[in-house]
Amino acid sequence: MPHDVVLALITAVVGLVTAAVLALVNSWISARAGVDENLREKRLAVYPALWTASAAFSRWPEQTATRASLEALHDRLRIWYYDEGGLFLSTVARARYGDVQELIAALVAAPGHADGRLNHHRYADLRDTASALRTALTEDLDTRRRRSIMDQRRRHSRHKNFHAQARARIEKAKKDGRAFHLESGPELARTASHSA
After folding, report:
1. b (16+ CB within 10 A) / e for 157-185
2. Is the CB of residue 100 less than 8 Å from the CB of residue 126?
3. Smallest Cα–Cα separation from 116: which of 9, 59, 195?
């Protein structure tokens, strides 16, 4: 076989293999984009309920949280997880959801009166842990910033930090026998300032 014919055949085979590989990659990317967009649409349908539930620990204004309201929220989040949205949570959002649920469980397990108000420091712990969950939800939906490789690394690092902070709050809540109090008015402020 002449050298030119062999070279032409090799070039044709390499071209066909390259075209086939590129077609497979493009097909995979298109399918993945479709799955991602479909998942995003499903998350947009179910995430608002979880976002709204987390308003129980808003910064502005702070809400009144009692043992009874925490128990009700604990149950409401469980129902949301199994009936609506748990299936759609990313691994990171699922971990932040777990941090919130574990912290609530630790707080409601603390001794105290059912009508007792959650002290300021434990409220702040719940507020910050719920904020980390909301951050994970916005990341799942890419509503605040598009992902880059550097952003993904920052997110990973930030959520590692969120998890470590949540673990510390949960441990503190398990050891704190003063999570709830019955005082109101000026006494409430003094009790909150003396609680750790």
Report:
1. eebeebbeebeebbebbeebebbbbeeee
2. yes
3. 195
Tokens of 167: 């673990």
Contact (Cβ atoms closer than 8 angstroms) between residue 90 and residue 50: no
What pTM did the predictor assign?
0.69
The encoded tokens of residue 122 equal: 């434990």
By C-alpha distance, which of 126, 186, 136, 128 is closest to 159?
A: 136
* pLDDT for residue 49: 96
Residue type, 87: L
pLDDT of res. 153: 80
* 59 three-class SS: coil
What are the C-alpha distances in Å from 149 to residues 62, 146, 152, 156, 186?
36, 10, 5, 11, 50
pLDDT per 10-residue tile (average), the chain, 196 residues:
80 83 65 67 95 92 91 96 95 96 94 82 95 94 70 82 89 80 51 41
Chain mean position to CA 131: 9
- The tokens describing 142, both together, are 């890419």
- Say if residue 61 is preceded by a cis peptide, omega within 30 of 0: yes
Per the CB < 8 A criterion, the answer to whether 155 and 139 are in contact is yes
- Longest CA span, the chain: 99
